[in-house]
Amino acid sequence: MAAFHGLAGKIRGIVESDEFDLGSIKEPFAAAQLVSSAFGTPFDAPLAEMVRATLVVGAGKANRQKYDASLQKWVVAALKDAGYADDKSATCDFAAAGSFKTQHDTGRNLFFVHVFPRCSQKTAAAVDDDAAT
Predict the structure, then answer these.
(1) pLDDT of 63-87, one tens digit each?
(2) Interatomic CA distance for residues 44 and 46, integer angstroms
(3) Is the pTM of this model over 0.85?
(4) Dist. CA 58–CA 24, nearest whole Å
(5) Cα separation of 16 and 50, whole Å?
(6) How far apart are CA 112 and CA 90, in angstroms?
(7) SS3 of the chain: helix, strand, coil, percent, to 5
(8) CB under 8 A, 24+ apart: contacts of 96-104
């Protein structure tokens, strides 16, 4: 098992859907490296339920300066290079593993890339064992 550090390690360690702010990424190489480290290989541990990694890649007028104007393009390109498919109808279901979709949340005025990572589903016996302990 490979050791992942920093933000990539946090993303790979999620067991429930979570949100990650990518405001510190200022160049295409850094975006590609993060996506490759976080999503380049399937998650190691089987999950009881599908997770969604929500990447904040942009903002409206009030916080626009925090994000590079091309960050969403860099992340999407890196995900496509990693073999992920753009699926506008993807949901938190194991059938969506290996896909992503973009969203503009007008209420929060943020731009997101929702990633449904490649992972395996825990078997019913493993879920029962976890519940018993």
Answers:
(1) 889 999 999 999 999 999 999 999 9
(2) 7
(3) yes
(4) 11
(5) 8
(6) 14
(7) 35, 20, 45
(8) 96/50, 97/50, 100/76, 102/72, 102/76
- The position carrying tokens 């190489």 is 29
- CB proximity list for 25: less than 8 A, separation 6 or greater: 31, 34, 68, 71, 74
DSSP bridge partners of 54: 19, 114
Amino acid at 1: M
Can you say whether residue 41 is alpha, beta or left, with left for phi > 0 and alpha for psi between -120 and 50 degrees? beta
Q: Which amino acid is located at 46 in the chain? A: P
Residues written for the chain: 133
For residues 59, 78, 8, 48, the Cα torsion angle rounded to the nearest 10 degrees is 90
